[in-house]
Amino acid sequence: MTRNRQAAERRGRIGESVAALWLNLQGWSVVARRLRTPVGEVDLVARRGRTTLFVEVKTRATRAGRDLAIDHYRLSRVAAAAQMLSARYAKPGDDLRIDVILLAPWAWPRHIRNAWMGD
């Protein structure tokens, strides 16, 4: 792994920890991290009440970069992975949601709730 890739990996892990803390402060319980499937991956899975949340976390160096970090393609991969993982993490009757948490230094997290509405 190249040095740049290692640094990006480290930033990503730190960002996921920050996002998990952010969710905890809002009453969510993080039940899984870094789940990979053949169709995509989910950074965090959280639960609160009857809602199971699948979260994509993006960490960027600037606020401008943060706000451009997510697109339809990335969200569609998260949605496909969430669909595969929902039987394992969601309880019958749960509401399922895909959120995005965007992070940049010296800025509050930007939490986009219900980011995926499907095609």
List keywords for this structure.
3 helices, globular, alpha+beta, 119 residues, 5 strands
Question: Any chance you could write out the topology, listing elements then pairs?
Answer:
Elements: H1 3-25, E1 29-37, E2 40-48, E3 51-59, H2 63-67, H3 72-89, E4 95-103, E5 110-112
Parallel strand pairs: 3-4
Antiparallel strand pairs: 1-2, 2-3, 4-5
Q: What's this model, at a glance?
A:
The protein has 119 residues and is an alpha+beta fold. The chain is 39% helix and 33% strand.
What's the mean pLDDT score? 92
Helix content: 25-40%
Task: Determine Rg (CA atoms, Å).
Answer: 14 Å
Q: Rough shape?
A: globular
> How many strands appear in the DSSP assignment?
5
Span between termini: 36 Å
Query: How many DSSP helices?
Result: 3
Low-confidence stretches: none
Secondary-structure element pattern, one letter each = HEEEHHEE
Strand content: 25-35%
Strands ordered across the widest β-sheet: 1-2-3-4-5
Largest sheet: 5 strands, mixed
Structural class per helix/strand content?
alpha+beta
If you had to describe this structure to a student in words, what would you say it looks like?
The protein is of the alpha+beta class. It is built from three helices and five strands. A five-stranded mixed beta sheet has the order 1-2-3-4-5, with helices on both faces. β1 and β2 (40-48) form a beta hairpin. The chain is globular, with a radius of gyration of 14 Å. The model has no long low-confidence stretch (mean pLDDT 92).
